[in-house]
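Fig. S4 source data, part A: sequence.
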Amino acid sequence: MTGFFINGDDAKLTRTGETTVKLEMFDGRMYENLEVLRLFPVSGMMKYISLLDESGKEIAIIRDVEALFPESAEAVRACLEAYYIVPKITKILGRVEKYGNISWTVETDRGVHTFDILNTSTDIKTLYDGRILIKDSNDNRYEISDVTKLDKESHGFLKFDM
């Protein structure tokens, strides 16, 4: 069951750990060591963010991170970035099809990776905001933030899968 909603101007959030915050409500309530998680991890990047206590009970939901005070919004963004590590693909270096699997080698913001995709129709998703999410055979996620920024060679590897 949901605790309460945070609308932005009624709370201060301070980062206390890699993925945790302290919540201070302006009515005097205070909560420590709250884990920051997305309720909609694929489509709702900065809306409806759940704050869970150490036992996993939901204390509050942030309706929109962008409505928070700047310092609070930055604390929440930093926690989400640490929790949801998703390498950003900047270039597709190659692809090999073998026995129905597709092996991709990509350059990301975290280095070069090679991974397999089992089913292009379910493992590659284009989202409403233009991002492309890719799930590999080990359930790791990769993101192409802006397909228009990929080079021509990368587009050639990508177009057969879309």
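Fig. S4 source data, part B ends here. The chain has a mean pLDDT of 88.
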